[in-house]
Amino acid sequence: MKFLRGPRGRAGGAEASEPERVGDDGIRGQETDGADTGIDTAGVTAGQERTAAWWRSTLPGSFRVRVAFCTLLVLVIAAGSAVVVHDVVNRLPGDAALRVGEEVVTEQELQQRVEVLGGLYGVQPPEDPDKRDTFNRDAAKSVAVSKILDRTAQQEGIEVGEKEARDQLATVIDENFQGKREAFTQMLGEQGISEQDVLDEISRQLRNTRMFAKVTESAEQATDEDARTYYEENDKEMVSPEQRRISNIVLESQKAAEDVAKQARGGADFAALVEEYTIDEQTRNEGGDLGWVKKQDLESDYAGAAFGAEPGDVFGPVQSQGGWNVGKVTEVEEATQLSFEEVQDDLKARLDRNAQVELWREWLGDKIAAADVEYASQYRPDDPEAPPEDLTNR
């Protein structure tokens, strides 16, 4: 069930924690999960989201936060880059989707890449035919840029050995599957991807990380004055958003949820109701506690009910992907303005990252401009020189 965007068992809840004063870079609205990859997993299945969550943990080091790696590098390319693009049907083999230099990508290979993205990031082709057509064209563009990056890494002598990739994978399994390879293998089967797909993606991530570091090592460092100016110009963003601690009961049907909600509003002990009725085994022994959550962490219907209730109130029933929910607001921490001193270091880090990304985009634009790309007509993007779009936004 996914009324929370960070999955945890059937309830899809986040681990209970103390209230966070700031996010990863200290700024409201700058979440890292979706931004790491440029992929928005809202609307995908719970299994796909679980996979996307553990997969994002493979991104190495501090670069996981807001720095463009494989998918972002592929899906969000600098504007204004002049790709040498041809729409030449007769020069490509009949089963080809595109060509980058001498390398031909067949339609089958393109589809396989989309399936891997679906398994790792929750990227799913839309059902609407028109949107599906645009999706396919954007996917072709994404693969073209990915090939350019792979070729550039090879030219620059940037390599990742198999042992290094497997060591990284072993760390992922230890941290996300308690070291249980069978659980990892089961996840791969559920998502229809192979271990080699994961290893290839890890290698690509590591290569792009090193290439990014090499290209951006000369980026100018932000000063305290730069951070102060940014703070003053964006003071409305400098807040720690309201957080609420919520307990939740998950039920199979609306009727059952209405009955439990009536009991809860009538004064029944909420923890006792959780123990008796919830189908979420992961929070049953915790009184249904989901920990501290922000409104943007929740599915819209559940968020509206949870953040519209007063402290101590019972809310629901609210339907989510995994069932019907009855919740209770146990604590509230109001939104607070953050002082410059609280966010100074985070702002400097953000400005440093912005400078790095700008330098990267300039470099990448030159590489794309020098590339020789051909698309089959059915995969040619509407605007080949524009940045590829996020494949999940349709």
UniProtKB/TrEMBL annotation:
Basic and acidic residues: bias regions: 18-31
Gene3D superfamilies per the UniProt record, alphabetical: 3.10.50.40, Porin chaperone SurA, peptide-binding domain (1.10.4030.10)
Domain spans labelled PpiC: 241-331
Domain of life (superkingdom): Bacteria
Pfam families, alphabetized: Rotamase_2, SurA_N_3
Transmembrane segments: 65-85
Signal peptide coordinates: none
The keyword Oxidoreductase is assigned to this record: no
Protein name as catalogued: Peptidyl-prolyl cis-trans isomerase C
